[in-house]
């Protein structure tokens, strides 16, 4: 199977350009002059400089935050690789959209998003059931569930391209709706199997090193899951990133890849949540290495294999918390840290502006002035 790039997909990949190095240099110089001991804002300082590179200014001012949850089902779920049945996927989509006394949506991502003022977008990327019409549901399904990756290609090249472009379209919509921080999120019973298969192939690791318990499978199911992934990888020798994605699936992973590429192409931040999102990012960076400049990992998730993904991407997670939920939940929690990092660089005064002694202009940070000065 080969994946001919449609012109639209080709253009999307080509539109991902490196972050603005000159803005990062200016941001670094500005960081050194802000009213604090050098390094006192810890990891926020490096984050703020990366944000300056994304937005092309040493005073970055990101507007809104949006989490884009793509849901899809997986043929491989029939092999018993999850602790939950596939019926959970469409039921959770209904939960993401439900009316509750607190606002739309009764899932973790909805509650967390409300707590930080993030907007939630929901996409049917190919769940098993026909979902009832809902004004807030973005319909992008081209098939109800992928094929079983251990037996045949999970998706055709055309299905893969369609979902990538659908993800990109939803990202554009979120950006038009005011989002500058985009959080791809997912829901799909069985999807840690394709995520682990993609990671094993693209990282060149044994499946056992990147296959975790997902929703909580026991030791026996975990061993079976690893065996299923071994069968899938033995079935397809593919190494080019889009063919790896098509062969191993799934629809929501393709949609998240499209969101990431589009957000980066429009110079917006991609907040990277967990292991399934990480598998989309691996495909994305293999296609467009500059995508890395736009990826901001949230927490270190509990799924084994996440650390290997982040190490490959050269990115450091912002926190622990042992999340393993998906939905974009970790990304939502990371958003205030990123907004805060940008705010320090944008809004803090320099030593000179605030007439605080001890700045670089006044004889060096944190250094007591001596009579010789
Ligand atoms: O992204 C993650 O880090 C992650 C880790 C473990 C589980 N999940 C979620 O759990 C589901 C996949 O788990 P499983 O066991 O069905 O493969 C899917 O709905 C994901 O959103 C997600
Ligand atoms: C209930 C439930 C909610 C989820 N959200 C993301 N993955 C999930 C898996 C399950 C099983």
UniProtKB/TrEMBL annotation:
Question: Which Pfam families does the record cross-reference, listed alphabetically?
Answer: DBI_PRT (PF02277)
Catalysis: reaction(s): 5,6-dimethylbenzimidazole + nicotinate beta-D-ribonucleotide = alpha-ribazole 5'-phosphate + nicotinate + H(+)
* EC number(s) per entry: 2.4.2.21
Annotated Gene Ontology MF terms? nicotinate-nucleotide-dimethylbenzimidazole phosphoribosyltransferase activity
Q: Which residues form the active site?
A: 327
**Pathway involvement?**
Nucleoside biosynthesis; alpha-ribazole biosynthesis; alpha-ribazole from 5,6-dimethylbenzimidazole: step 1/2
What InterPro entries does the record tag this protein with? Nict_dMeBzImd_PRibTrfase (IPR003200), Nict_dMeBzImd_PRibTrfase_bact (IPR017846), Nict_dMeBzImd_PRibTrfase_N (IPR023195), Nict_dMeBzImd_PRibTrfase_sf (IPR036087)
Keywords from the named record: Cobalamin biosynthesis, Glycosyltransferase, Transferase
Q: Which EC class, in a word?
A: transferase
Stated role: Catalyzes the synthesis of alpha-ribazole-5'-phosphate from nicotinate mononucleotide (NAMN) and 5,6-dimethylbenzimidazole (DMB).
Tell me its family.
Answer: Belongs to the CobT family.
NCBIfam families given for it? cobT_DBIPRT, PRK00105.1
Stated name of the protein = Nicotinate-nucleotide--dimethylbenzimidazole phosphoribosyltransferase
List the lineage, top down: Bacteria, Thermotogati, Deinococcota, Deinococci, Deinococcales
Q: What gene makes this protein? A: cobT
């Amino acid at each position: 199977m080969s994946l001919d790039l449609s012109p639209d997909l080709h253009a999307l990949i080509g539109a991902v350009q490196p972050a603005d190095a000159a803005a990062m240099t200016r941001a670094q110089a500005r960081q050194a002059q802000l009213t604090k001991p050098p390094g006192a804002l810890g990891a926020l300082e490096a984050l703020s400089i990366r944000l300056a590179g994304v937005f092309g200014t040493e005073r970055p001012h990101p507007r809104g935050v949006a989490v884009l949850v793509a849901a899809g089902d997986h043929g491989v779920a029939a092999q018993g690789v999850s602790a939950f049945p596939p019926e959970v996927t469409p039921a959770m989509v209904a939960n993401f959209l439900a009316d509750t006394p607190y606002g739309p949506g009764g899932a973790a991502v909805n509650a967390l998003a409300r707590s930080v003022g993030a907007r939630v977008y929901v996409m049917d990327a190919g769940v098993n059931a026909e979902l009832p019409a809902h004004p807030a549901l973005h319909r992008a399904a081209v098939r109800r569930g992928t094929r079983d990756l251990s037996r045949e290609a999970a998706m055709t090249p055309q299905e893969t391209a369609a979902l990538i472009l659908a993800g990109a379209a939803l990202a554009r919509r979120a950006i038009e709706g005011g989002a500058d921080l985009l959080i791809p999120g997912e829901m799909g019973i069985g999807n840690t199997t394709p995520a682990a298969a993609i990671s094993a192939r693209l990282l060149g690791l044994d499946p056992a090193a990147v296959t975790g318990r997902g929703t909580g499978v026991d030791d026996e199911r975990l061993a079976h899951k690893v065996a299923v992934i071994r069968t899938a990888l033995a079935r397809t020798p593919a190494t080019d990133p889009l063919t790896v994605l098509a062969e191993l699936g799934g629809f929501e992973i393709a949609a998240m890849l499209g969101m990431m590429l589009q957000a980066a192409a429009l110079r917006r931040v991609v907040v990277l949540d967990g292991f399934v999102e990480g598998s989309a990012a691996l495909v994305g960076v293999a296609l467009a290495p500059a995508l890395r400049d736009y990826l901001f990992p949230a927490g270190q998730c509990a799924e084994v294999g996440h650390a290997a993904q982040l190490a490959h991407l050269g990115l450091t997670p912002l926190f622990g918390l042992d999340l393993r939920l998906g939905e974009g939940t970790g990304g939502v929690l990371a958003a205030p840290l990123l907004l805060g990092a940008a705010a320090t660089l944008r809004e803090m005064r320099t030593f000179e502006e605030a007439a605080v002694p001890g700045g670089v202009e006044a004889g060096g940070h944190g250094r007591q002035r001596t009579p010789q000065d």
